[in-house]
Write a structure and sequence with these properties.
- The protein is α/β, with parallel strands linked by helices and 223 residues long.
- It has one domain (3-222): 3-Layer(aba) Sandwich (Rossmann fold), CATH 3.40.50.
- Helices cover 54% and strands 7% of the residues.
- The longest helix is centred in the middle third of the chain and has 18 residues, at 94-111.
């Protein structure tokens, strides 16, 4: 692991994932968790939030960077496991972050409709566990102020924890220059990726994963 993404989800992590991969770093994002379901990633993240020790080298085999939940909340553990890795803290205006994250939470709650598929049931349970692990509450008990307070607290904790020469606080609106300077890369001769990761796009990805890893997978096995 060469780059640890410490920023919460909905801070441009899809764009950052694409940027890392364009620079040559295969990047682990929440979207990878379901893809790696058969390799036990959902169960391992759930166990990690329960305090279990995780073989990070094994979990991240094939990846050189991380972004998004759930990896971002384990940045301390990842710094210890990968002492030479740099840390990128992606940030966003708190109000804008909340508007995006609250819509995501609504989508996550609707994703439980797919719980008749065992792997989606476990993935949903992991997400609910993560909500309590990160924000110490549930969608029914937490307020907007609770979410934003924890979001800001996390940013300050990362800044206080990570040595300055190992940390980049970064907004995707800044583009390639600060990121490439921090990583020691020349600036690519292409625009910085600004992925369309709105709620409609996320909803389509959930449906796509449902068919790929739910009924679609069962159908392929029967053929």
């Amino acid at each position: 692991m060469k780059i640890i993404g410490a920023g919460y989800g909905r801070t441009g992590t899809v764009s950052l994932q694409q940027a890392f991969e364009q620079l040559g770093y295969p990047c682990y994002h929440m979207q990878e968790v379901m893809k790696a379901y058969d390799r036990g990633h959902v169960a391992q993240w759930d166990a990690a939030m329960g305090g279990a020790r995780i073989d990070w080298d094994e979990l991240f085999v094939g990846y050189e960077a991380t972004v998004d939940f759930p990896a971002c909340v384990f940045y301390r553990e990842l710094m210890q496991a990968f002492p030479d890795a740099l840390v990128v803290l992606s940030v966003r205006d708190p109000e804008a972050w909340w508007r995006s994250y609250s819509k995501l939470m609504g989508l996550v709650s609707k994703a439980t409709w797919f719980n008749f598929v065992p792997m989606f049931k476990k993935f949903s349970a992991m997400n609910i566990h993560m909500l309590d692990y990160v924000f110490a509450g549930s969608m029914e008990t937490l307020t907007k102020e609770d979410y934003i307070a924890q979001y800001l607290r996390h940013i300050e904790e990362v800044k206080a924890t990570v040595p300055a020469d190992r940390l980049l606080v970064f907004s995707v609106t800044e583009g390639w220059e600060p990121l490439c300077e921090f990583l020691g890369h020349p600036v690519p001769d292409k625009p910085f990726p600004h992925a369309n990761s709105g709620i409609a796009d996320l909803r389509s990805k959930i449906v796509e994963q449902f068919w790929q890893y739910g009924p679609g997978k069962i159908f392929r096995k029967k053929r």
